[in-house]
Amino acid sequence: xxxxxxxxxxxxxxxxxxxxxxxxxxxxxxxxxxxxxxxxxxxxxxxxxxxxxxxxxxxxxxxxxxxxxxxxxxxxxxxxxxxxxxxxxxxxxxxxxxxxxxxxxxxxxxxxxxxxxxxxxxxxxxxxxxxxxxxxxxxxxxxxxxxxxxxxxxxxxxxxxxxxxxxxxxxxxxxxxxxxxxxxxxxxxxxxxxxxxxxxxxxxxxxxxxxxxxxxxxxxxxxxxxxxxxxxxxxxxxxxxxxxxxxxxxxxxxxxxxxxxxxxxxxxxxxxxxxxxxxxxxxxxxxxxxxxxxxxxxxxxxxxxxxxxxxxxxxxxxxxxxxxxxxxxxxxxxxxxxxxxxxxxxxxxxxxxxxxxxxxxxxxxxxxxxxxxxxxxxxxxxxxxxxxxxxxxxxxxxxxxxxxxxxxxxxxxxxxxxxxx
Length: 421
Hints:
The chain is built from 14 helices and 16 strands. It is an alpha/beta fold. Helix 3 (46-63) packs antiparallel against helix 7. The longest helix has 19 residues, at 5-23. It is globular and about 75 Å long.
């Protein structure tokens, strides 16, 4: 990469803009053929990708990356096959581009049509997980957008190998060169140049830690869709089925603790805390979870938990650690979640439909669950194929960002010579 990082980033932006004009005109059939070719090439490149990933893992261990970070970084044959499977799934999904959202005619004879169109050029800045390279690029491609990807230094070799495979697969079907680009530098200056490149980028999506997101937001000259912390809660109501409560809490916390939709805080109604909390706590501790509780939960759990600090309630652990709180009622749970949560994903466990509906209506999060693990806050589980993140914003996208969320719309107005004068 040239020593002039800004110049290189600007050149990538110009190529992406030119490619986006072409992508906006591709048919669904053309895009799907390209995606299937990308998936095929990704599988064929598995040995190269694993070799590159081994370099990243070795460097990560030398840098002292945590076990959750290394888990998110690691690839194997099955994971690469799954990434290719996600690409094929995206190819099978309905193409949102060209969808007519609304149409009407005015008394003066003007005919209006609101049609879904690509956003244009999207910059995506992410950390650690190399599968994001493929997920983000292929979702943007299917929705007609060109993409400039900036991964973290810890996954640079893996990201380059995946991006190269996508490029080779796409080129076989005539995909323009600038459609999918990966910034080959680990220089942090490249993030600033991307964020300032509003003449080419229409949207930027940071996916990573709070520090990265806040830095991008402070520098960006274009709209930003944020994927903030996943401080996810499960509230066990007084009408919860005990077996169901244990099963859901254990799954939400331990199925994959290093991801953003994993449970970080367990709340339990005071009327069932004494009978049910020890059972849930034992099930979590059997799986290695450290519990940090409030005064009421400590009185029940004793030495099975340690005292939580004020900071704990707002911490995304991404590890086998969870906070535990006893609340007086449903309203107390909702108030706690809306105060300490990150508007990501929260769940109520209850057999009381009225209580469940109140929780669903009043918890201000992108994904609100009733009797289902928060681990389902995922684009693939929603039936969207892959996703580029869970937006905790409210405009213009919220929740899993997939194909529809990567589009905008425009108005087409057809007349017969009408004037205002």
